[in-house]
Amino acid sequence: MTSNVEFRRMHADDLDQVLALEQQAFSHPWTRKLYDDALLSYECWMMLVDHQHVGHGVINQVLDEAHLLNIAIAVEQQGKGLGLQLLEYLMQRSSARGCVECFLEVRASNHSAYRLYERFGFNEIGRRRDYYPSAEGHEDALVMAATLFSEE
Hints:
152 residues, Aminopeptidase, alpha+beta, single chain
């Protein structure tokens, strides 16, 4: 695990960096409009290593449930454990805010993300057919859930 990691809230002036990272990391990245809306409605977090943006995440809370909406690590930083650190941070935030469970959707083809979520303790609980756009039309989303544990 990288020790010189910081987390801070995302701001509108971060969006150029965020969108650039998304363009490299995803075949269908979020748009500026989605991020503009997310900044108003959800918790959006930046992950920094040595003060450099290496990842970000977006999480929503509905009553006692968290919904992980997006998580991204810069392509050149993947495979270093940063995704797990970011996921753990977002889950700790959710637990501290009273969430007892977290849900997410992941592309069926995104095996590395699936393994990351499994490693944290997420389990597959369902499938949404043709949920994500893809080069071939659409692909399924796997729905996953994890129980969050309070650190009290």
